[in-house]
Amino acid sequence: MYTGTSASPGIALGKALIYEHEELVIEKKEINSIEEENNRFDKALEISKKELQEVKEKALKELGEEKAQIFEAHLMVLDDPELINSTKSKIKSENLNAEFAFKGVINQFIGIFEAMDNEYMKERAADIKDVSGRVLRHILGKTVVDLAGLEEEVIIIAPDLTPSDTATMNKEKVLGFLTDIGGRTSHSAIMARSLEVPAIVGLKDITKKVENGDFVVFNGDTGEVMVNPDTETKEKYQSLKDNYDNMKKDLKELIGKESISADGRKVELAGNIGTPNDIEGLENNDAEGVGLYRTEFIYMNRDKLPTEDEQFESYKEVLEAMNPNPVVIRTLDIGGDKNLPYLEFEKEMNPFLGYRAIRLCLDKKDIFITQLRALMRASKYGKLRIMFPMISSLEELLEAKEVLEGVKSDLDAENIEYDKDVEVGIMIEIPAAAIMSDILAKHVDFFSIGTNDLIQYTTAVDRMNEKIHHLYSFFHPGVLRLIKMTIDNGHKEGIWVGMCGEMAGDRKIIPILLGMGLDEFSMSPISILPARKLIRSLKYEEAKRIAHTVVTMGKSEDIEKYMSEVLD
């Protein structure tokens, strides 16, 4: 048995398809004709462009505009005059074969991007590698593996999967993914959840342990993989799969039902989204609102700041689609691991503790005001709730609210309509905010607990560091106590308290949060119906007893074990 990181839930059984891009051997060769090499290069570019245009259109149709933008970036690489001219210049001046000249230019480009301090620009190196591999294969006359042409059901096993791989594959034939590298936030994991395909990542060398045609079974919930299991194990996994599939069908019967405990405690189950294209997932899973709309995606994959009107249209689309359900829109949360190529960010020793989110917005008020104007203009099209991220002090909160009041005054002066009753809240993701939540609660309409950062800040554990990832736990007693404190302090001031971190959709944690009195749970859309089923099976009074017991315990592992027994 092999174990990796659970990336997307579900059970998969089937034949393995090892998907590795063949290592290309690029040799320097004597050429007979510069014109002939230029023609080989031009032809490879044209074929690659045609393929990528088809990939983009397919991605646009099946995955939405945000995912399709990846391939727009790839097409831009192929149209880059510097890349094309430098390659042809190298062919001519150094009398080089097309593939060797192109590879030399590409290596220079990749080296430049990888040397940059900006994480966003470093990621563009991966785009260049992806595109250049396609072009090189066409120059060499090699077959570009076509996952779109799969004719039998397979489990794809790969070192990793590129955006092109996942966008072009025949989804009807892909039973699941297994990859050597990656974590829950890697491209493969995100795409697997988006496609609702079971997946396990970070298996280190699974491509070396499995051969084409091997029979593989795996559990996307536990991260366990078995290769060529015996008949008894196959039957066990088939039974698990049947149960899982039946559970998914049964969950659909909960559409339209209330999210209410067995003894009448009603809560709100909302979804986390990044773009208007994610609305379909919310609708399919009967979300009762949007608990977190991450607006930073509007600012990414472009070369300048979005205008007020561009933002207004995006916010309006989501608010109209979800109306009359509420939509919590988080103001710009850039910085840390999310930088923009058109904004100057100085290199920081600790970017997660640095110049980001509300700190950036209060420093660059022109950017903040543009966003707030767009939000308030869109507010008349639905039930908007505005949320400020990374608040660590009352001073920051009051300053942010002052900027918002200024925006309202300007809109009044311009006779522009907006909803006068928009709720304003903050993310509780910094321990200082949780500790002084009794004071902050007097100045807001709601709290939303951002556990992804709250856990790493409380425990001093970088959640992206694999060496210490085992210390990053939903069950940490200190984190649970801060959550209870925040909920209690919010309720004392008469405001509602939600949660928008990954923790909100965790089966073992939901009873604790229910018992603590959490009002709103916001999660990945595919987790909403399972959460509703669980909540409807629980009694609030019993959940309160569970929560009380948990906060008296001192070890994460004891709490997790206790919750496993409670739900068994």
* CATH topology category name of the largest domain: TIM Barrel
Spatial gap, N to C terminus: 24 Å
Proportion of helical residues: 40-55%
- How confident is the prediction overall: mean pLDDT? 89
The CATH superfamily of the largest domain bears the name Phosphoenolpyruvate-binding domains
Largest sheet: 8 strands, mixed
Q: What share of the residues does DSSP label as strand, in percent?
A: 5-15%
Tertiary shape: globular
Care to count the β-strands? 16
Helix/strand structural class? alpha/beta
Determine and state the CATH class of the largest domain: Alpha Beta
How would you write the strand order of the largest sheet? Answer: 1-8-7-3-4-5-6-2
Q: Please give the count of helices.
A: 23
Q: Do you know the CATH architecture of the largest domain?
A: Alpha-Beta Barrel
* Tally of distinct domains: 3
C-alpha Rg (nearest Å): 26 Å
User: Unreliable runs, pLDDT <50, ≥5 residues?
Assistant: none
SSE order and pairing:
Layout: E1 2-3, E2 5-8, E3 11-18, H1 34-63, H2 65-78, H3 81-93, H4 98-114, H5 119-140, E4 154-158, H6 163-168, E5 174-179, H7 187-195, E6 199-201, H8 206-209, E7 215-219, E8 224-227, H9 231-252, E9 268-273, H10 279-284, E10 290-294, H11 296-299, H12 308-322, E11 326-330, H13 357-363, H14 365-378, E12 383-388, H15 394-413, E13 423-428, H16 431-435, H17 437-440, E14 446-449, H18 451-459, H19 477-492, E15 496-499, H20 510-516, E16 520-523, H21 528-537, H22 540-550, H23 556-567
Parallel strand pairs: 3-4, 4-5, 5-6, 9-10, 9-16, 10-11, 11-12, 12-13, 13-14, 14-15, 15-16
Antiparallel strand pairs: 1-8, 2-6, 3-7, 7-8
